[in-house]
Every structure is written in C-alpha cells, then in structure tokens.
Design goal:
Blueprint (H helix, E strand, L loop, with lengths): L1 E5 L6 H14 L4 H21 L4 E8 L2 E9 L5 H13 L4 H14 L4 E6 L2 E9 L3 H24 L2 H46 L3 H27 L23 H6 L8 H4 L3 H18 L5 H21 L2 H15 L2 H8 L1 H22 L5 H18 L2 H14 L4 H14 L2 H17 L6 H16 L6 H9 L11 H4 L2 H26 L5 H5 L1
C-alpha cells in the first residue's frame, strides 16, 4: 500500500498524478489503463481540491493483483455526474460531439461498478477499482471453505446440539436453498442460449475454411476422450459412501433403467415449455441445437435472430455471474452445515472426491502427451516444456479466460502460426472444456453411487451426450457446478446433492482449468502441424 497527502491546492495536482502514475506502473497496470485512469483521476482531484476543507489523502492499495485508488478529504458533497458534466462543458464550445461521446463512454466505463463516491461525516470518500485480479474470487472461495470448516467443527464440538442444529436449519440451509433455487432458475436458459448462439456462429466459422472445421472436430473428439477418461478414473477408484445421503434432505427418485432406444426417442420434446419446467437436459440441448442451426441458416438474409440469441446469451451469462459471485458465502454455509451434520469419517468420504478428480485430470494430461506424439508426430516433452507457463497460469488463476494471454504467448513461442492460434485458443476457452468433462463425469458417478443409482445403458448414453453439450455452455466460472446441478435430476439424484462437493469445488477447479487450457494447446499444436503451419525449428529449439 502506498499513501500520500497533498494540500487542497491546484499546484499540487501534477505531483499527485505523478505519484499515481508511478505506483500504477510498479503494480504492472497496462499503459493504456494508466492513461485512462490519470485522465479520470485528474478531474476527480480537481473537484476535490475545489470542495476540500482539509488535506487530500491518496492511497493506492493492491492485494493478489487487484489495484484500487482511494481518495479522502473533508469538504462539500459532490458525485460522479458533476465530474462528467464538467468534462462535457469543457468541450461544448468546440462543438466536438465525437469528443463528448468518447468522454461519456470513458466516464461510463470508469464510473460504473468500479467507481464509488460516499459523503459521510462531512467528508468525501472515493474509491476507484483499476484492476481486478482473477485470483480474487478464488481467494475468497478457499478462505470461505476453510472458515466454514472451522466454524462447523467448533459448533459441533463446543455448542449444544440444539444450538448447532438450529443454526444449520435456520441460517446455513436457507442460504444454500436460495442459492440452489437461483441456480436452477438460470441454468436451463443459460445452457439453451449458450449452445444456440454458439451453433448459430458456426455458419461464420465455416467461412474460415477447413482449418476451422478441423479445430472444432478435434475439440469434440478430445471432449469424448475426456468423458471416457473420467469414467475410467472413477472405475479405478469407485468412491461413494451411501451413508453420505443422510446429509441431504432431498431423496433420490430412483430412476428406472432406460434403454438406448428410449433415450434417443426422448430427446425430442412434444412441446417447448416442458423441457424447461422439468429440467430435461437432452430436450433443452435438442431445442438449442435446432434453434442455433435455424439461426445460422437465415443469418445471411436476416441477422437479427442470431443477434437476439447472442444478446440473451450475454444476459443469462451476466445473471449467472452474479449468482456465481455468491459462491464464497454459499461455500461457507455449505461447509459449516456439512461439518455439523457429518463426523470426521464421513467427511473423509467426501474429501476423497478431490484426489480422484485430480487423478482423472492427470490421466487426461498424459493422454494429451500421447496424442502429441502419435497424432502430431512431435516430442511431447518439448510441448510440455514450451506450454508449461500457460498450464501453470491456468492452474493458479483457475480461469481459462484469464490465462488466455499466456496461452497465446506460449503458442507463439512454440512456432504455431498466428492464423491458427489466434482463432483456436479463444474458441477453445468457450467450447473445449475437457477438464470440465472429466470432473462432471466423476462427480455424477460419485453422487449416483451415494444415492444407490445404477448408471448403465441408456442412462450412460444420455449422460455422455449431455456432458458434451453442457461443456460448450459452461465456460463461465463455476460452470462445472452448473452442469452437475442440471444433470443430477436426469439420473435420479436430487440436485441438492451438489452441496457435498460444492465446498471442495474450488480446489478441483484449479487442475480442471489447467486441463482445459492444455487441451486447447494440444489441439492447436496438432492441427498446425498437419496444416504445415508449425515452425518445427522453433518448436524443437
């Protein structure tokens, strides 16, 4: 944290701006962001100097990559609209409407959710979020996990059973139920519009030629392999203690055996509404696919329909992000509730889910290296050496999007043509989530065993189809949890069963994201090799 104070004097402004610029540079804020921040901060400081009745305090703080500027001074109240009006008035005389529009957009960008003004006890308090770290959510979630486990343990050991039970039933459980209801409300439309909008874009992808089609085909192939790996990993370590079902209030529906024929016939619904009302995943996927293909076919004549799908996808993605943002609170409640209701032995039966998921991800990484050697004809250890920084970035950030800059950089370092990786890597963060496929398959088998559901035949086929398609629509944070929540009722397991693994999910998500990004790198490398767009000297150097 860096701090300085300046008198309420306009002559002190250059020194204050230099202090901000120097410290933002030290925190590795991009130059364009620094320039934009200085422009806005200058006018904020001018307004504070005009209204201040004391020295102005400037604080620049940063935690886990998040950078924030805080300003404080006693004085008359003002707000962000005063600053924007001032900027617009300064340009009114020139009649430059384009400049005013740019300023308005700038103010909207900076003074949205990232800007806050408070006037308390005769003082203006201003905070401006410059850079938000992707580690922030992970840090809060893991901290909540640990805090929830400690709180639940203390409540179980040192408070009367009536007190701990009352807290669990009246505080922890209601919060969890509200979260689950919100999740169930949004997950169907989210998957529907995500898949529909992605398929609608395939019409544009085809115009990129055979390379794009090869990349997409390869992504779907690795997703099938990932599901098989998840199934194999679980059967090597078939975890799942039926006694854990007692920790869930809802009961299993004990679905009967479904034939493959019935599964295929049941994909097509007899109306549009019931798939969403009854959360029938395969029917939702069918409707999304049909709608996406229809949108792609009419896009050249009328692009509005495709645009609406994209808009609705953004809306539901944003709504889901708000809900997922509550995960740290829900993880605390879920973990505390679990610690109160389970003894240590049963808790260990839940924790074993983590090493099995990690084992599955390790098998998938190993499979990637075999594909690099056999299909790509390349040295797998060279690939591992070159792409490891991107894998490490994905593991630590637990976000494919946040790791994308590193992935693109390492693709360049490996000698892959920019024409390939500039398309393949961003697309992979959206539709190629092999690590997610591994996690979802293991989780579904784990929870189905707890509730005594046998997964065979048609039920297994429906799971495979649904996991493939859901992986396309689960590229948001916590996407695997959304997929598991939606698929559990399809196999006769209550959706509430996801609470058993929700508290541990952030730990699984780290290796899962690493696998997702590695899969993008592997497909990109193999396709570029077959298209003769890989610099072998650079790759082997």
């Amino acid at each position: 944290m860096r701090q300085m104070q300046i008198p309420a004097n306009i002559n002190e402004l250059p020194g204050a701006l230099e202090f901000i610029r120097t410290n933002l540079s030290a925190k590795k804020v991009p130059k364009k962001e620094i320039a934009r921040t200085l422009l806005a901060t200058e006018d904020v400081l001018v307004k504070m100097i005009e209204t201040a009745k004391s020295n102005i305090s400037i604080v620049i703080s940063g935690l886990l990559g998040t950078v924030e500027i805080r300003l404080y001074a006693k004085g008359e109240e003002f707000n962000s609209s005063d600053i924007e009006k001032k900027l617009l008035m300064e340009n009114t005389d020139s009649g430059d409407e384009e400049t005013n529009a740019i300023i308005h957009q700038l103010m909207q960008k900076l003074y949205g959710n990232n800007f806050l003004i408070k006037h308390e006890n005769g003082a203006n308090k201003i905070s401006l979020l410059i850079k938000k770290s992707p580690l922030r959510q992970l840090f809060f979630t893991i901290s909540s996990l640990i805090a929830g486990a400690i709180a639940g343990f203390l409540l179980q050991k040192f408070t009367p059973a009536a007190v701990s039970t009352s807290l669990s039933q009246n505080i922890f459980s209601p919060i969890y139920v509200m979260f689950m209801n919100s999740l169930k409300m949004v997950v169907g439309p989210l998957v529907f519009f995500s898949i529909a909008s992605s398929i609608a874009d395939f019409g544009d992808i085809k115009t990129l030629g055979k390379i794009a089609l090869k990349i997409i085909f390869a992504y779907f192939c690795t997703s099938f392999i990932a599901i098989a790996i998840g199934y194999l990993a679980y059967n090597i370590f078939p975890i799942g203690n039926p006694e854990l079902a007692n920790a869930i209030t809802a009961s299993a529906t004990h679905s009967t055996s479904i034939s493959i024929k019935d599964t295929i016939i049941g994909i097509i619904p007899n109306n549009i509404i019931s798939p969403f009302e009854e959360s029938k995943m395969l029917q939702i996927i069918y409707l999304a696919t049909a709608l996406g293909l229809a949108a792609a076919s009419v896009a050249k004549a009328d692009a509005r329909f495709k645009s609406w799908l994209i808009i609705f996808n953004k809306i539901f993605s944003k709504l889901t992000s708000f809900i997922v943002g509550c995960i740290p609170v829900v993880v605390f409640c879920s973990m505390a509730k679990m610690m109160i209701s389970l003894n240590i032995d049963k808790l260990l039966n839940v924790i074993v889910w983590i090493p099995v998921v990690y084992f599955g991800q390790f098998l998938m990484i190993t499979t990637y290296l075999i594909l690099i050697a056999v299909v790509g004809g390349l040295n797998p250890f060279k690939f591992l050496e070159k792409f490891f920084p991107a894998m490490l970035s994905a593991f630590s950030l637990a976000s494919s999007s946040a790791a994308l800059p590193t992935s693109l950089k390492q693709s360049e370092e490996m000698g892959i043509s920019k024409k390939i990786y500039s398309f393949s890597m961003p697309l992979g963060t959206t539709i190629n989530l092999d690590g997610t496929c591994v996690t979802v398959m293991i989780s579904l088998l784990f929870l189905s065993k707890i509730f005594g559901i046998s997964v065979t035949g048609g039920l297994l086929l429906s799971m495979i189809i649904a996991i493939i398609m859901i992986s396309v629509g689960s590229s948001i944070p916590g996407g695997a949890l959304l997929g598991i929540t939606l698929l559990l009722p399809q196999i006769g397991v209550p959706a509430d069963a996801v609470s058993l693994i929700m508290g541990l999910y952030p730990i699984a998500d780290m290796f899962q994201t690493c696998t997702n990004v590695t899969g993008d790198g592997v497909v990109t490398t193999i396709v570029s090799r077959h298209e003769k767009m890989l610099d072998l000297k650079k790759f082997n150097s």
